[in-house]
Amino acid sequence: MSKEQRLRVDAVLRQPRPDGPQTIEAFRAGFRATMAQMIVPDGIRTSETILGDRPALQVEPQDGGRPGTILYFHGGGWVVGSPETALSLTGNLVARTGFTGLSLDYRLAPENPFPAAIDDALSAYRALLDLGHDPSTIAFAGDSAGGGLSVTTCLAARDAGLPLPGAIVGFSAGLDATGTGESMDTKTGIDPIFTRERLEPMRDMYLAGQDPLQPLISPAVLADLAGFPPMLLQVGTNEVLLDDSTRIAARARAAGVNVILDITADVPHVFQSFAGVLDEADQALERAALFLTQHIGTVSSAPASAK
Predict the structure, then answer these.
(1) What is the pLDDT of residues 175-225, one digit of tens each?
(2) In the annotation, is 269 catalytic?
(3) Which run of H or of E encompasses 54?
(4) Which entry of 74, 88, 218, 239 is annotated as an active-site residue?
(5) What is the CATH number of the domain that holds 175?
(6) pLDDT tens profile 19-56
(7) Which of 3, 156, 175, 247 is the most buried (most CB within 10 A)?
(8) Do the domain assignments include residue 21?
(9) CA nearest to 122, candidates 161, 85, 83
(10) What is the CA radius of gyration of the chain?
(11) DSSP one-letter code for 170
(12) Is the pTM of this model over 0.90?
């Protein structure tokens, strides 16, 4: 673990941002440009597919793989991002596990506010089940808003009477639109990316006037996680969203769920994106891959592809 690496990443994330309000198109373009700098691992191949009624990026090991599917939800505060912007994360999970990744291009706010993203994610999960995938061979995973979606999609699946997936992985998951976590204030200035004020416009676009006090919007505050599959929650100590993960882990524990809260010191939001640059990122991805291979069952008849 290198202090110099952490300082370099922190400095990059603190570079000045454009002054004044941005159009949503400019915001999305800037995010794409930033994430295009992340290192995508070798040994994977990608193809476009459809899952439910939404596009998805299928990510597979180049030299064959093993039975198991990671249904991945990208980050971006519900308003930016795509499967391509999360490819370093999806690619690393696929390369390290041998599973197939399916990264969903769910609808974004403000054009499609809550609950559009959850509806798309649930539809994608239904499509996998309809294709014959055993739920025990499927994991939900995601980063930031997508990490929150991995939890809320599982809530929606349970409410719909569907069998639940075999595991959940959340990287710096966004799980509380009420903004009541202590870290929202205690980590201000320490977090090189976010402040409460920077998060609020994205939250407001996603909510579109909805009350944030709903389990599908703020599960860290309100969700009953009874019956949930094993969960791995990875987060850094330098995040204003730190307490989103600590509180959902406490709720999981209280509900009798197998949960691992994996906190890494002195790293920023979704630090796993810096694999190949930051030692802690590679180490965290190795732990996530181990968790997935330990918890995703193999059923010989389950298809490995959505095609």
Answers:
(1) 999 999 999 999 999 999 999 999 999 999 999 999 999 999 999 999 999
(2) yes
(3) strand 54-61
(4) 239
(5) 3.40.50.1820
(6) 778 899 999 999 999 999 999 999 999 999 999 999 99
(7) 175
(8) no
(9) 161
(10) 18
(11) E
(12) yes
